[in-house]
Amino acid sequence: MYRLIIRSLRAYYGDYTVSSALKQEIKNVEILYNKALYKECEKFVTRAKQSAKKHEKFYYWYELIGWEKKLIELAYESGVFSLDLDRLVAEEEHVISKLRNLAEYTVIYSKINFVFRSGGFTRNEEERKVVRRIQNCHLIKGENTALSIKAASICYYIKGLCAATNRDYEFAFQYFNKTREILDANPDIKLDTGQRYVNTLFHLLRCHIDNNKFDEAKKMIREIRSLKGKKGFNFVNISVRIFANTAYQELTMYNKMGKFNKSVRLLKEVEKNSKNMQIT
After folding, report:
1. Taking each helix axis from N to C terminus, what angle separates 58-77 and 38-54, rounded to the nearest 10 degrees?
2. Which residues contact 119 (CB under 8 A, 6 or more apart)?
3. Is residue 154 packed enough to be buried (19+ CB in 10 Å), middle (13-18) or exposed (0-12)?
4. I want to staple 22 with a disulfide (CB 3.0 to 4.6 A). Which of 60, 77, 219, 224 is the partner?
5. Is 90 exposed, middle or buried, given 0-12, 13-18 or 19+ CB atoms closer than 10 A?
6. Number of C-alpha atoms within 13 angstroms, CB side, residue 147?
C-alpha cells in the first residue's frame, strides 16, 4: 500500500518539476535507442537537451550529451561523418565546468547555512572565523566567478547570509535584493528554485522589520503570501513555509510596533488556520 501511494504521488507531481520531466524524457530516449529507433531517439534527445540547458539542469544536460555521442558513433558506423564529435566533446567539457562550479557554490552555501540555522548570528569566534573564510573565498570575493545563473544567485545569497549572521542588515538587504533581481530576470530558473526564492523574500522581509521599515514589510508579506499556489510555489512544503514564516514575521513586526492587540488577533487566526491546514 505504501509503495502504491508513493507511486501515485510520483505520478501526480511528476509534471510539476523540470527534473521529473527530464527523467521521463531520458527514459524515453533509452527505450527508443534500445528499439533501434534512432531518428526518433535523436528528436527526444534534442528536445530534452534544450530543456536541460534552458533550466540549467547540468547533470541531465551532461547525460543527454552522452546519448548524443552514442548516436554519433552509430552514424560513423553507418558511414555518416558529417556530425561534429569535437564540438560535442567541447560542449561536454563546458557543462562539466558549470556543474563543478555550481557544486562548489552549493558546498559553500551549506557551510554558511549551518551557521545561520544554528542561531541566526555568529555566536562565537569559531563561527566568525567560518564566516570570514567564506567571505574571503575566491568564489565569493572574486568577480565573474559564477558560471551560471543558478551559481550567481547562490553566490549573492551566500553573501547575504554572511552579512546577516554579522548583523550587517544594509549589506544583507543589498545582496538578497540582488539575488531576487537575478531570479526575477530569469523566470525559468526562478520557478525551478522556488524554495530559495521564497527564502530570499523572507530575508528581505526580516531586513525591513529590523530596520523599522514597516510599510515595506507589510508590502513584502502580501507579496510572499500571493505566491502560494502559483506555479513553482504550489508544493506543500513551500505553502507551509509561507504560512508559518509570514505569520511569525508579522507577529514580530506588530510586537516591535507596540500593536499587541493585532498580535493577539493574528495569533487566533494562525491557530484557526493551522487546524484547517491539510498536508497531503
Report:
1. 150
2. none
3. buried
4. 60
5. exposed
6. 14
Classify residue 230 by its DSSP letter: S
14, pLDDT greater than 90? no
Residue with cell string 509561507: 242
> CA–CA separation, 15 vs 8, rounded Å?
12
Host H or E run for residue 267: helix 260-276
Residue 188 three-state SS: helix
Residue type, 187: P
3-state class (DSSP) for residue 48? helix
Type of residue at 170: E
For the chain, helix, strand, coil in percent to 5 are 80, 0, 20
pLDDT above 90: percentage of residues in the chain: 58
3-state DSSP of 54-106 = HCCCHHHHHHHHHHHHHHHHHHHHCCCCCCCHHHHHHHHHHHHHHHHHHHHHH
| pTM of the predicted model over 0.70 | yes
Got the DSSP string for 124-177?
Answer: SHHHHHHHHHHHTSHHHHSSS---SHHHHHHHHHHHHHHHHHTT-HHHHHHHHH
| Cα 104 versus chain centre, distance | 15
**pLDDT for residue 82 is more than 70:** no
